[in-house]
Amino acid sequence: MRFVCPSFSDLYEPNVEIKTFPDGDSYVRVPSAGEARGKDVLLLNRLYPEQDSSIFQTLLALRAIREQSPKSITLVVPYLPYSRQDKVFKEGEIKSAKVLCNLLKREGVDLLVTFDCHFIKKEGEFEYGGLKIMNLSLNRNLVEKAREIAGEELEIMSPDEGANYLVEEFGGSSMKKERGDYREGKEAYREIKEVKMENDVSGKPVLIIDDMISTGGTMLRAVENVKRGGAERVVCTASHGFFLKNSLEKLRESGEVFVSDTIPTEVSKVSIKKHLEKIPGMEKE
Ligand code: R5P
Known about the structure:
By secondary structure, the protein is an alpha/beta fold. Helices cover 24% and strands 29% of the residues. It has a 6-stranded mixed β-sheet. It has a 6-stranded parallel β-sheet with strand order 10-9-13-14-15-16, with helices on both faces. A two-stranded antiparallel ribbon has the order 2-3. Strand 7 (124-128) and strand 8 form a beta hairpin. Bound molecules: ribose-5-phosphate. Ribose-5-phosphate is lined by residues 84, 159-160, 162-163, 210-219.
């Protein structure tokens, strides 16, 4: 039994209604929730953009399904918001990634399926915040696509050591990134102090791969390094592309850019659909 939210309409026919009341409150209805009784249920929703309201809408949909006593609930969220907030950097902060996982568990999620989850950095099944998580990686699909674009001889790199797991199986290496303190002002953004590269990339085509491109700060610094090092061509990619602060345009000025459709964008060239079809229950409808 599969419940699909409208955020997934590019891949599957939605059967969950999500609207907004005039005051901004969320309206969620799962018309066929009654059929969930005793069944293994899948709920598919993208939680970005507008992550806070999307999370709340997911909790409402889960409650509507859970009230029908399904046998199990698997939640499919291609990009997990808050996954970068899994550490306390300053006293008084909380690990919001853990709070989100706690909430999903409490609302009846037996398994969360997601892609390249920032705080996991490995493929497989894990437990975090009391929630069972299946983390899938898109690295092989991204590398395959990059090789189609720029040839087999690509030098593969990640822009920081946190993303090393994406490149190690291809003999790739990682740059070293250091972040500083939060900037002044309302935006919670930790400055990038430096992104250091030691490789000789002169005359080579280079692929830079990360789990996400958010403001593009990391990727732009990595691209700068590679260009300064005399690379012949630069392709950049990530599983999740937010492309905030005009970063898509800026990256395009230096090379080719593509991402997956965990968040649909105009440069989403790798689809998660093949992976989703392998989830038990997905193949049937
Ligand atoms: C952080 O460690 C992540 O892997 C990404 O490198 C980072 O979140 C990208 O953010 P931004 O695009 O804002 O530099």
